[in-house]
Amino acid sequence: MKRNGVVYLVGAGPGDPGLITQKGLNRLGSCDALVYDSLASDYFLDEVPDHCRKIYVGKRAGAHSMKQEEINRLLVELAEEGLNVVRLKGGDPFVFGRGGEEILALSEAGIPFEVVPGVTSAVAALSMAGIPVTHRAVSRSFHVMTGHTLSDNGTLPPDFDSFAKLSGTLVFLMGLSNLSLIVNGLIKNGKPEDTPAAVIENGTLPEQRTVRGTLADIENRAEQAEIKSPAIIVAGDVAALDFSSTLSLPLKGCRIGITGTESFAGRLRRELLKYGGMTDNVLTLSTQSHRSGEAMKEAYKSLKSYSWLVFTSANAVREFFTGLFEGGYDLRLLGTIRFAAIGKGTADELLKTGFHADYIPDCYQVKDLAEGLKSLLTKEDRLLIPRSAGGSPELNRVLDEAGVFYDDIVLYDVALKKSEQESMEKVLAPLHYLTFASASGVDAFFQGAREKVLPSLASLKVVCIGDITAKALCRYGREADLIAPVYSISGLTEVICQDWCREKE
Ligand code: SAH
């Protein structure tokens, strides 16, 4: 009999992807199915293994969302298939997250489960807005209430008066549409009108906004600022405090869209996060390996006849060495072969396998790689260039002209990965920058939808990793706003940091 899988109810934290727990990340890293909704950042979709089934269950404007009973059933069915499932929920699974209902359904079906707590927005959104939920001599307790069920019949629930009379910090989740009812209810039940109050929108995210005031005017102020959901309402003396962080990272408040392969996107995202930027995956390219195809088999077999191995991407390095070991060879096969790498990222990847690059061009471009190599070669040299299909013909042109012997072999293909994303316009709307790391990424982005996406690029800056990528962009009628002078992840990050800091001045 097939064994049931385990369901992990994981709290994703309040929005900033850095606020998930290590335990939550570990569960994501080893699950077979992911069931998630809109409060959980897209960032987490990249943390699951390749084979993982990703199932979106709502609720985004316009998209179909599942009813709670359907979600319960889905979790049971997936586990009965023997899959280990992560049910990812915004904040903490039990803070108005309906985690309990899912657990009841799982217990009934005899499915094993584990709860991984999360950082709740009820505390974290306040912290990030500089409002401490408690403060010595100001607030000795905090109380969290849902504002959602308040207005079933337009009235306050019977226990609201005792809630209003509590002396600590009062926090309302899901209360924005009932803000008026809440504020008036608090005042009617004895809270002074000058009680400090605040509304925090998109807490912990780059677009976080806080409106502060008192019970008398907070409704007006929130309305004027056009505060939208998700938002948290706070009432109590702590709402007058402001302990916002004073350390500001260079990319604070900056939202960057990434296009590229999964591995590239992951590395760029980690780098941008270090500087306080938030990222969205706009388009993911997947790589299809040909490392065990006939051409590569032949190349491994005759590896000893080559004097140079040329890598034009970190991915090529990974694929090449994986294929080498899978083929039953080891590093001895490489003997005294010399290595050329197109840039630092590729050279760093090579170093992981124990080899320093013998040659890296000053400018990380195919043309410079070819020109530089040319000057190092003799007539006896034989080059092996395992790289992606559709790699730049510039390399062949320069080497052909110089009469260099080389084998240019397709090691992998890059293709657009089907995404479960919303429409491109919606994905692009909140972005400040959109990055392109290759001409193939540019082509994939515009595939079939050129007229539709061009206008969406008007409100953001497009950043390209190098001239070839920028030229590819030009072909679609859009100039790059920024080109990284150093063609690497850190070069791309640096150019965005500089520009963003200039913008803020
Ligand atoms: N389990 C979640 C809460 C789910 S209820 C948690 O522990 O945080 C959904 C409500 O949470 C939203 O309506 C909003 O009031 C609040 N919320 C969640 N994330 C938020 C955020 N980033 N900023 C402001 N409010 C948020």
Automatic annotation (TrEMBL):
Gene3D superfamilies reported in the protein's UniProt record: 3.40.50.10090, Cobalt-precorrin-4 Transmethylase, Domain 1, Methyltransferase, Cobalt-precorrin-4 Transmethylase, Domain 2
Protein name per the record: uroporphyrinogen-III C-methyltransferase
Protein family (similarity comment): Belongs to the precorrin methyltransferase family.
PROSITE patterns per record: SUMT_2
Main enzyme class: transferase
EC number: 2.1.1.107
Source organism of this protein record: Lacrimispora amygdalina
Domain of life: Bacteria
Domain Tetrapyrrole methylase: 7-218
MF (Gene Ontology): uroporphyrin-III C-methyltransferase activity; uroporphyrinogen-III synthase activity
Keyword tags: Methyltransferase, Porphyrin biosynthesis, S-adenosyl-L-methionine, Transferase
Any one of the GO BP annotations: methylation
Domain Tetrapyrrole biosynthesis uroporphyrinogen III synthase stretches: 270-493
Annotated InterPro entries: 4pyrrol_Mease, 4pyrrol_Methylase_sf, 4pyrrol_syn_uPrphyn_synt_sf, 4pyrrol_synth_uPrphyn_synth, 4pyrrole_Mease_sub1, 4pyrrole_Mease_sub2, CobA/CysG_C, Siro_Cobalamin_biosynth
